Amino acid sequence: MATPGKIKPGLVSVSFRKLNPPQLVQLCKKASLRGIEWGGDLHVPHGDFEMARRVGELTRDSGLEVAAYGSYYRVGSSERDGLAFEKVLETAIHLQAPLIRVWAGVKASADADEAYVNWVIEESQRIAALAQQAGVKVAYEYHADTLTDSLLSTVTLNEQARHPNLFFLWQPANGKAVAYNLQTLNTVLPRLQNVHVFHWWPDASVRHPLTTGEKDWQEYFKVLHNDDAERYALLEFVKGDEPEQLLQDAATLHRLLFVAQSGNG
Fold first, then answer.
1. Which of 16, 210, 211, 217 could be joined to 249 by an S-S link, Cβ 3.0–4.6 Å?
2. Phi, psi of 64 (to 5 degrees)
3. E-state strands within the chain
4. pLDDT digit string (tens) for 199-221?
């Protein structure tokens, strides 16, 4: 049974790069998930508008929702590498994605000088304005080696990159304690869209079943549920890239959402 409520369970498609869109849709239905973030590096390539249209229709015809377009567009870098944001945006429009996931540059915050930060902010505001005209949101991924790789840098970016169409995503930072992750979550909460759900410990080289991190995620979902906003909780980084493990992780996610909703966490 699918989990009701304002936080909707889903999947990041690049979790299963060997599966095609129809296979992914069927897996999500089997796991009682409600949405899919489709990746721009494989399943819905940038500029392949026909593929975007077909995948979007397949998703909706199957009773699922397009949660986002995971573009892997690097703000301040991809344009120089030949990927225009207009192409990314047009693909998202054909997919009928409500949101485009981007990276806040390609430099770790510790290596970024003021000029670089300002450049990423200016570019962020430019693409946010372009997407706003099309009714599509833009959100930074909370990611290592970008300008959202620490609490301080995320706070700074949140304060400086002001645009009504520029938002954040969130995921637990590698190797950090729950208290630290709760700080970053609360920092971006007013501008938060979706959350990526997984459990790594102690670092990105060791994936665990989501149930191993269930106590941690109970704390995160308390914050998310109390915020009273609709968003997706998207499963990612499944141990062993195994579909059977996704089914187990989805069951854990449904349980977490039920507990949060019932106030028993």
1. 210
2. -105, 170
3. 7-12, 35-39, 65-74, 99-103, 137-140, 166-170, 192-197, 231-235
4. 998 887 889 999 999 999 999 99
CATH of 7-262, one of 3.40.50.620, 3.20.20.150, 3.65.10.10, 2.40.50.180: 3.20.20.150
Residue ranges per structural domain of the chain: 7-262
**Global confidence as pTM:** 0.95
Nearest to 9 by CA among 174, 240, 233: 233
Which residues contact residue 146 at a Cβ distance below 8 angstroms, ignoring those fewer than 6 apart? 103, 104, 105, 106, 107, 108, 109, 140
Rounded CA-CA distance 2/202 in Å is 31
Residue 114: Cβ within 10 Å count: 7
Are 49 and 94 a contacting pair, CB within 8 Å? yes
